[in-house]
Structure formats: structure tokens, C-alpha cells
């Protein structure tokens, strides 16, 4: 085992007062690099802001593996192709990235920014008359809860989302943080027997159990016809980093192929429960102008409803992805 602190393979050289900071390794490591599948250690944060030479953005990591705040970019200003490439690299490395003070971002520029990363999907529960159908509005308040079951977005699709970009449009006076879990780090924490077993399993992902709640059986049948239950590997390989991640979630994964509900339940409980381990999480406090961009292939997320009954509204654009393998 290589100890990154002992042999000097640090991710970053941390800036001492007044000194420049450089990144000691190339931006993307290949999946063959043993460091990719082991937990990475950052040097103690003497100066939290990491400035990378030759890059137009700043990256301020929040934990050792997941979450970073990005500075130096106005998302409403049509970032250059080079800046978009840097943002994409930061997303792959930190799995969820945050932008502050994006006060000029509106629905049009939110959509335009999202399109720089791929096609945007239209969520089936988006009201038909919405002028910007790519924007999925998620309101909460009173007794109406924000999504507080750990999940990755739209895993019920045949080709689920690559990433989601979220803008807060109504901030509650307190609380309402969102949490993300690094599902690659969660995979690493499994014992070898569980890893080997999980790799043989196929998860069943369903739209109707969440979005059809409270609807009649007939309506639910119609929904399921439009969005049939999907099969995805329980452990997927990230198509860009090669990282293995746990790809079942407590919201949309309703069972396991070739397993009875009783057989599947304890396995799914164990695997989905890994998102709740604090060591793999980061937590974000929203402020006016905050934007979050996460990789749905690498993370799961969950809102804390500790702000209720106050009002909280967010708007999401969702970049399409490819078939998990
Ligand atoms: O409201 C949030 O912070 C996240 C909601 C959510 O699950 C999503 O936007 O996909
Ligand atoms: Fe979500």
C-alpha cells in the first residue's frame, strides 16, 4: 500500500503564506492507477483555496474525496470552452461542485449552461404549460417535503442522467442543506465478499413507486407502461473515470432481478445504507445565488427537511447520460 503522506504522492502541495500552489499530478488519473480506487488523502489545509496554475477557475475541496467549491466563473457569462473543460474535470474529480453568488443565472442561462455538458432531459412530472420544460421545479414547504430519501437522479430511465445542475430560487430562513455521498468511496468500504456478490446483481429501478404515490392503481399502471421498470447493474463502472460505484438507491431501486422481495431487501438495505455513512458525505449550506452540479454516476444525494414548514424551492436541469455497465 502506498501511503500518500509518506512517499510524497500528495494530491496538492498546499500553499504556505504567499507561495503559489501547484497540482502535483495530472488532472485525470487513469483507472489503472491504484490511487483511483483507494481513498485519497489531502495534505492538511493550511490555506484552503487551491489555485491551479494555468486554470481559470479556483477549486476549494470540502472533504478528501467529495465536494468542492469552484470560484472565478460567472455561469451566466457563457464560459469559454476551456473553462467548461476545467469545470468538467473538477466535476469528475470532486463528484459534486458548487458555485456561489450566481445571481445573474436565470432559467435561460441555466439551460444554456447545462447544454454545454450534453442534452437536457424533460422530466415526466414537469407541468405541460411550463415555458422552460427542461427546468424541473422542486418546491417544498408546509407539510410538502423536499426529496429526503437518498438517491441518484432518474435511475428509472434506460439511460439515466450523467449530471444534474441545481439552482436555489427560494431560500428557507434556516436549514435545508443538501448532502451528497461519494458512492465510489462507499463501494471501497464494502468487504471483499460483499463486493464480489454485489457485482453479480442486477437492480430493478422504478419510477412509479415515488412519482405515482397517492395515485389510483389504474393511473399507476399507466405510468408504469410509459416508464417500465429498468434493470441496471448494482455496481456500475463510471464511464469516464473507470471508478466502481454502488448504483442502487433507497428511492427508485425496488428489488433485485431473480430475487424475491424478502431475499432482496437485506441486500439492498446494506448497499443503499452506505450513502448514510458520514465519512463518504459532504454537506452544502445554500445561500442566494448558490448552484450545485453533481455527477449522478458517482454520487447520491438527499435534502434535510429541517427547514419545514418554511418554503424552499430549487430548479434543476438534468444532463442525459448513457446506459450503466
Ligand atoms: O432540493 C435539493 O437540494 C435536491 C433535490 C433533488 O433531489 C434533486 O434536485 O435532484
Ligand atoms: Fe435528486
> Helix share of residues?
10-25%
The amount of beta strand, in percent, is 15-25%
Instruction: Work out the number of β strands.
Output: 16
Straight-line N-to-C gap: 28 Å
As laid out across the biggest beta sheet, the strand order is: 1-2-3-4-14-6-16-5
SSE pattern = EEEHEHEEEHHEHHEEEEHEEEE
Describe the structure.
The protein has 325 residues and is α+β, with helices and mostly antiparallel strands. Helix content is 19%, strand content 22%. It has helices at residues 81-94, 107-115, 183-189, 192-198, 208-211, 217-226, 261-272, and strands at residues 50-51, 58-61, 68-71, 96-99, 136-140, 163-170, 178-182, 202-205, 230-233, 235-237, 244-246, 253-256, 281-284, 291-295, 299-303, 312-319. The chain has an 8-stranded mixed beta sheet. It has a 3-stranded antiparallel beta sheet with strand order 13-7-15. The chain is globular and about 50 Å long. The structure holds 2-oxoglutaric acid and fe (ii) ion. 2-oxoglutaric acid binds at residues 138, 146-147, 153, 164, 166, 178, 301, 303, 314, 316. Residues 147, 151, 153, 301 line the site of fe (ii) ion.
Features of this protein?
325 residues, alpha+beta, 8-stranded mixed sheet, 3-stranded antiparallel sheet, 7 helices, 19% helix, disordered N terminus, binds 2-oxoglutaric acid, binds fe (ii) ion
Amino acid at each position: 500500500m502506498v501511503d500518500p503522506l509518506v512517499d510524497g504522492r500528495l494530491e496538492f502541495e498546499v500553499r504556505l503564506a504567499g507561495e503559489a500552489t501547484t497540482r502535483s499530478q495530472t488532472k485525470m488519473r487513469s483507472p489503472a492507477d491504484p490511487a483511483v480506487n483507494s481513498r485519497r488523502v489531502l495534505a492538511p489545509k493550511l490555506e484552503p483555496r487551491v489555485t491551479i496554475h494555468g486554470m481559470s477557475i479556483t477549486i476549494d475541496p470540502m472533504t478528501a474525496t467529495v465536494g468542492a467549491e469552484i470560484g472565478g466563473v460567472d455561469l451566466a457569462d457563457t464560459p469559454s470552452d476551456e473553462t467548461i473543460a476545467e469545470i468538467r474535470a473538477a466535476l469528475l474529480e470532486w463528484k459534486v461542485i458548487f458555485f456561489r453568488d450566481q445571481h445573474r443565472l436565470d432559467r435561460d442561462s441555466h439551460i444554456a449552461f447545462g447544454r454545454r455538458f450534453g442534452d437536457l432531459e424533460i422530466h415526466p412530472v414537469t407541468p405541460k404549460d411550463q415555458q422552460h420544460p427542461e427546468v424541473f421545479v422542486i418546491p417544498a414547504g408546509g407539510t410538502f417535503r423536499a426529496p429526503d430519501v437518498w438517491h441518484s437522479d432518474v435511475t428509472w430511465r434506460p439511460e439515466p442522467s450523467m449530471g444534474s445542475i441545481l439552482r436555489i430560487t427560494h431560500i428557507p430562513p434556516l436549514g435545508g442543506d443538501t448532502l451528497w455521498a461519494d458512492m465510489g468511496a462507499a463501494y471501497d468500504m464494502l468487504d471483499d465478499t460483499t463486493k464480489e456478490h454485489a457485482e453479480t446483481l442486477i437492480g430493478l429501478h422504478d419510477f412509479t413507486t415515488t412519482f405515482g404515490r397517492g395515485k389510483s392503481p389504474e393511473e399507476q399502471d399507466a405510468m408504469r407502461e410509459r416508464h417500465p421498470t429498468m434493470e441496471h447493474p448494482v455496481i456500475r463502472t463510471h464511464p469516464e473515470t473507470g471508478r466502481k460505484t454502488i448504483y442502487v438507491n433507497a428511492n427508485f431501486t425496488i428489488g433485485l432481478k431473480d430475487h424475491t422481495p424478502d431475499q432482496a431487501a437485506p441486500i439492498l438495505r446494506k448497499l443503499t445504507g452506505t450513502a448514510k455513512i458520514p465519512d463518504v458525505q459532504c454537506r452544502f449550506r445554500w445561500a442566494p445565488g448558490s448552484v450545485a452540479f453533481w455527477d449522478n454516476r458517482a454520487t447520491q444525494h438527499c435534502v434535510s427537511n429541517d427547514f419545514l414548514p418554511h418554503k424552499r424551492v430549487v430548479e434543476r436541469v438534468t444532463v442525459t447520460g448513457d446506459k450503466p455497465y
